[in-house]
Amino acid sequence: MRDPYSLLGVKRNAEPDEIKAAWRAKAKTVHPDQNQDDPSATSRFAEIGQAYEVLKDPERRKRYDRAAEMHQTIMQQRNAAREAAERAKAAKANAEKVMEELAKTNAESAKAQAQARGQSQSQAHPQNQSGPAGETPEDMIERIFGATAADQAKPHTGGSAQASGDSAETTKADVSGGERPPLPALAIDLIASIVRRFRGTTPAPEKAPDISVEATVTLEDLLKLNAVTLKMADDREVRLVLEKGMTEGHVARLKGQGLKLAGMKSGDLLASIKVSRDSRFRVEGFDLHTTLSISLEDAVLGGDASVETPEGNRNISIPAWSGSDQTVRLNGLGLHDDAGGRGDLVVELRVVLWEKPNEKVTDLMRHMRHGLYV
Fold first, then answer.
1. Backbone phi and psi for residue 43, each to the nearest 5 degrees, phi listed first
2. How far is 232 from 62, CA to CA, in rounded Å?
3. Parallel, antiparallel, or unpaired for β 269-275 and 251-254?
């Protein structure tokens, strides 16, 4: 299916009411009953309906947006990699061209040196020239690549206009008779200039996008710090070792276990911890919550009771006059936190009546309601 936003003609941040209105307008326009002479009207009407089904559901819309964003990122990285490869290929070709020019210059310099042996010492020294007819390396780059590359090859002093003039005079003096760097050094400078010119500013892609998944674990897994296996969309199985500090909503990052693309470093896998439902305990941060039912007499008079914990049954004392809004906290019986300790087990008290009505209790409550005390 094509992009649902484009099909409905709405922006990606459009509100649900705007999407619904756009769908109604589009559906009315392309409805087969209104376009009986158009054989493609039915398929277009169905396509618009599918687009609306995707965008009207918040969860389906989020999944589509994530997939579209990942696809766009991948395409951008592939284009960047292709452009970088093209620049590298061009740099290599031009570097080979420079080496050919240097070889030619070296041969002409050797020939000039041979001719210089038969001339007097007062004449200029041809061996100090760096190219045909006294061509400088900067002139060579300009001749091969243009003025931009020649400017890159020139040294930048960063000083005033006077400093720039001094540099120009020095270059001129080098051509007329000063000493110049040997050809291998010139070759290195020239190749470095080529690389700077063709490398560009966009770095080659290094890492593929990350993947986010939901890791469903049991309470026992978190308490025992077990390892769980995550099933990936590409049929891979990734092992996640639970650690201290992990609880509901924690996001674990697994390096290199995300999206894998050729020529790119693998992305990371972001596993969001989700604790499966437990009939005994409820997870809140690093604390565990459980419910304990107590009788009316224990709620009024207090007493002792046994409660189930992750480490077996424990006896607790119920304070007198305990209502259903009170709790008893057992320290250190929760999940492993990220500070080397453990959360608590919070026992929530719930006052329950007997299974069958008690006449004495009923009579007492009636007297209390009407203000009559025995």
1. -65, -40
2. 19
3. antiparallel
What pLDDT sits at residue 92?
76
Which helix (H) or strand (E) segment holds residue 217: the answer is strand 211-217
Can you tell me which residue has the tokens 């009546």? 353
Ranges assigned E (strand) in 237-344:
237-241, 251-254, 269-275, 282-284, 287-294, 303-309, 312-318, 327-330
Query: For the whole prediction, is pTM greater than 0.70?
Result: no
* DSSP 8-state code for residue 249: T
What's the longest Cα–Cα distance across the chain?
Answer: 142
* Rounded-to-integer distance, Cα 269 and Cα 257, Å: 5
Residue 184 has φ and ψ, to the nearest 5°, of -60, -40
Predicted confidence (pLDDT) per residue in 59-101, tens digit: 888 888 887 777 777 777 777 777 877 877 877 777 777 777 7
- Sequence-ordered list of residues with C-beta below 8 angstroms from that of 172, at least 6 positions apart, any chain: none
CA 312 to chain centre: 43
